[in-house]
Amino acid sequence: MTKTVELFYDIAPSYSYLAATQSDALAARAGAEVRWRPFLLGGVFKATGNEMPARTPNKAQWLIGDTMRWAKKYGVPYAVPSRFPMITISTQRALVATDRLVGQEAQKKLAIALFHAYWAEDRDVSDQAVLAEVAASVGLDASALLAALDAVETKNALRANTDEAVSRGAFGAPAMFYEGELFWGNDRLGLLEDALTNNG
User: Fold this and answer.
1) How far apart are CA 50 and CA 166, in angstroms?
2) In which element (H, E) is residue 36 found?
3) Residue burial 74-85, b: 16+ Cβ < 10 Å; e: rest
4) pLDDT tens digits for range 16-57
5) How many helices (H) and strands (E) does the chain have?
6) What is the greatest pairwise CA distance in the chain?
7) In sequence order, which residues have a C-beta less than 8 Å from that of residue 104 and are 6 or more positions away?
8) Is the model's pTM score more than 0.70?
9) pLDDT digits (tens, 9 = 90+) for 58-112
């Protein structure tokens, strides 16, 4: 039976971006699959009483350096976005709509492209014109996707993912679950891999 990791993510957090860049390699090494679950980090914070680290000036400054070190370690592009924090309601709706209408693999491709657009190219991925361009670049019907952003089914799906993550213990992103256990943050990928390979 294939081992499955559920990756609850939002495009806005740098650690979600970093973890996403490593998910395929981790899954290949561990003989696992990753199910990508877009949720709304703002909704998670509200439900749990948590706050984004960037609201603390010293922590915000540390986060920039820490993210840069991780990006260098992984060999992935990284640029501090000029729009941070980003309000990602439209972005996350686009992802759940893609999953609902096209499927998991298409959602993953769109997520990777949006992560790159935001964290490497400093693009406003909450803007519908940018969303449409990025969606088209990975072979999606941009018009159909934009039309689905405000659909009740899309809103309900995003809310359901967010509520489920909170009910299972999530308080930030990325929140990764394997066999009921939460692994939070990019720096827990090693511990997740240990669990997947029965070393943890």
Assistant:
1) 11
2) strand 32-38
3) eebebeebeebe
4) 999 999 999 999 999 999 999 999 999 999 999 877 776 778
5) 9, 4
6) 46
7) 35, 36
8) yes
9) 887 888 899 999 999 999 999 999 888 788 999 999 999 999 999 999 999 999 9
Here the tokens at position 155 are: 């809103």
Bond prior to 57 in cis (omega within 30° of 0): no
Phi, psi at 181, each rounded to 5°: -100, 135
Tell how far CA 71 is from the center of its chain.
16
- Token digits for 52? 């984004």
Residue 174, preceding peptide bond in cis (omega within 30° of 0): yes
Radius of gyration (C-alpha) of the chain in whole angstroms: 16
Closest CA to 36 of 118, 98, 85: 98
